[in-house]
Amino acid sequence: MSRTPQGSEEARPRTLAEKVWDAHVVRSDGEQPDLLYIDLHLLHEVTSPQAFDGLRQAGRKVRRADLTIATEDHNTPTDNLFTIEDPTSRKQIETLRSNCEEFGVRIHSLGDAEQGVVHVVGPQLGLTQPGMTVVCGDSHTSTHGAFGSIAFGIGTSEVEHVLATQTLPQAKPKTMAVTVNGSLPEGVSAKDLILKIISITGTGGGKGHIVEYRGQAVEELSMEGRMTVCNMSIEWGAKAGMIAPDEKTFAYVSGRAHAPTGEDWDAAVEHWKSLKTDSGAEFDREIVIDAAELSPFVTWGTNPGQGVELSGAVPDPAAFDDPVERTAAQNALTYMGLEAGTPMREVGVDVVFLGSCTNGRIEDLRAAAEVIKGRKVADSVNMMVVPGSARVREQAMDEGLDKVFTDAGADWRFAGCSMCLGMNPDQLTPGQRAASTSNRNFEGRQGKGGRTHLVSPEVAAATAVAGRLAGPADL
Amino acid sequence: MEKVTTHTGTAAPLRRSNVDTDQIIPAVYLKRVTKTGFEDGLFAEWRDDPEFVLNQDAYQGATILVTGTEFGTGSSREHAVWALKDFGFKAVIAPRYGDIFRGNSLKNGLLTVELPTEAVEAIWDAVEADPTLEVTVDLVGREVRAGGETWAFEFDDFARWRLMEGLDDVALTLRDEARIAAFESDREAWRPKTLPSPV
C-alpha cells in the first residue's frame, strides 16, 4: 500500500506539504486540478445548510458520514446553554441538527461535553492527527496544520462537494518555509510570533502557498501554541500552515478518544515519523525570523497585518511608502479612533475577550489566569472568558481557573465562538474598544462599530487589570 | 450553473483595499439557511453613509464592482459571493483576491478577474468621470474593455472552461467515482473515523 510516487520521483527530496499532498491524490492528470481525498470534514451551523440543501436537490447522500462531524459554535449563546433568543440563530442551529439527523452525521450539540469551537473540538477528540487532509467551511481550519496535516477552509459549494464525494479538486499550491531561529524570549508567546509574521508579510503575503513553520522556536512551542500559529495562517493569505509532527505531537494525540491503539498506533507513528521535509527539498519561498528580536505584539489597525510591538506607538500613515498601505492606515486610524504617535500602552480598552479558536484552549486560559491571579479587573473593563469547548471549560474548572477569573471580576462563560465574530449575542457596541485574543480586527468584526486590538492571552489579562494595553511586566 | 462568457455593464468604483468578507457581509447577516436574500447585508457597515458609492444615484444598476487589492480576504463565508450576486453584480475587477473568496465566486458564476493596480485606477478614473461608461469583462477573450482601452487578464484554463460550460463540480468529480472507491479501499485502517462515536 504505497502511495508515494513511483520510480525516479521517489528519490526526489520533498517538503512536508508535498508528502501529505501526494499521499491524498486520487487523480492527477495535468489538465484538471488534482483531486484530493479528504480524511476529515468538520461542519458547523453557518456554512453547511445550503450544502445539505444541494445534496437533497440532487438526491445525493453524504458519502462518508464516518469521516464527518458537526458541532454548534458560531451562533451559540455563552451566558446559558439552552436558550437561543434570536430566532434566526435558533433556526440555523435547528437546521444543522435536522440535517445531521437526516444524513446520519454525528453532532455535538449545546450541552454536550464535546460541544465547542469546531477547531478546538477536532484536536481534543484526537480526530486531528498527523498527515491528514482536513477541511471545514471555516477559514481557521488552518489550525489543524499544527499536527502536520494539510488543513484549509472551504466555501459552502465545496462543503457540498466534500459531503457528496469526500474529495476536492484543488490546484497544487506552492510551498513556503517560515523558519524561526533561536528561542522566543521570556514573556513572548505563539500569538506574538504569528502577529509579528503577519505584520511582515501583510494580509496577502502567503497567497497561493502552503506554509511550513519550522526552526527552534517553533519546535519549542507546545502543541497548543503551534495551533495558535497555524490558526492565523489565513490572516496572511496562506492556503494552509503546517508544522512537522514530532514526539510532542504524538504525545498530544496519544490516549485521546480517536487516537489509534495497539498495533494501529505503532503503524500510525511509523508513518507519522516520515512526515518531515527531506533535506535538500526546495521551497518556493522562505522567510527567516530571529526569535530573539521578538517582543509582545498587538494590532493598531483594521487588518491583522497592521500590528506593532506593545512597546511601540500608533504609526503615522505618512510613514508608509506604498500609497495603498498609506490610505489603508489612514482609514484604519479613523475607524479605530487613534492618533499617530500614541504609545500603544496608553490605549485604554472597554472590553477584554479571552477565547476563540486562536486562544481558547486550556493553556491559553492557564496563561491568562497566571497573570490575573490575585489581581482585579479594572473597573472600566468588562472581561469575558470563553473556553473554546465544553471540555476545556470543565478542565479549567477542575483546575480552579474559573475561580481565579471570577475572583478577579471577570465573566466566566460557556463555550463557543462568542465575541470573535459578531454573530451571537456577545458583541461590541459602536465605538467600544476591545483587547481580544481572537484572530481578526476587521471593521465591525466583533460588532458594528466595534474596535479591536488583537493580543495574546497574557497581554489580554494584563490589559484587563491595567485598563489599557499592557503586558504582564507592566503590572 | 448558468454559463458565463462575457458581461457588459456599468461599473461602481470602490476605492478601498483589503475589503475582507466581514466587510462584504457582516456575520450578523449570515443566518439564513437559503442561498438567496443576502443583498440587504452587502457592505452593511457602509450602507448608512449617503456618500458610499453604492448609495450614489450615478451608480445605481452597476453590475461590475471595481475595487482595490486583497478583496475578499478573511472568512470563508460564501455568503459574500451570494450577497454580491443578489445585489446584482455579475463581475468584479481587482488586483488580487482572497483565495477562498475567489474559489467561491467561480463556483457561483460571479466573474472575478485580476487586473494590475494601474489598470484598476484607470477604470476608477474613467467611471468616475462618466458613470454611464460601459465596461466589458470578456472571459472568452480574457480581456476587459472600457472607453476604447483594453486590458488583458490571466485566467486558469480549466476554471474558464468550467464557467463557459456552466458545469457542476460534483457531477464532474463523480465521473471519477471508481478512482475514489479504489483510493478508499487502499486507505490505512488506522485512519480515524467519527463513527461509531466513542464518546
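Chain B is about 30% helix and 15% strand.
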